[in-house]
Amino acid sequence: MLEHLEEKISELLAKYQDLMEEKEKLLSALKEEREKRLEIEKKMELLSQDRERVKMRIDQLLQRLKGIDL
Fold this sequence. Notes:
Layout: H1 2-67
């Protein structure tokens, strides 16, 4: 009976260790994904700013063209 209890405790400890290792891997993967997301958000912001600059330049060019008598 005591041997059975020891065996169950050993199994539980092994499962606990496995779960702790899996948790660490998942936390690491989560950190990496968060970093990737932040990088993508920064790139999106830069692209948005670039798009706005291009839009402004096009608007300025169109205004200049409207001012020219053809």
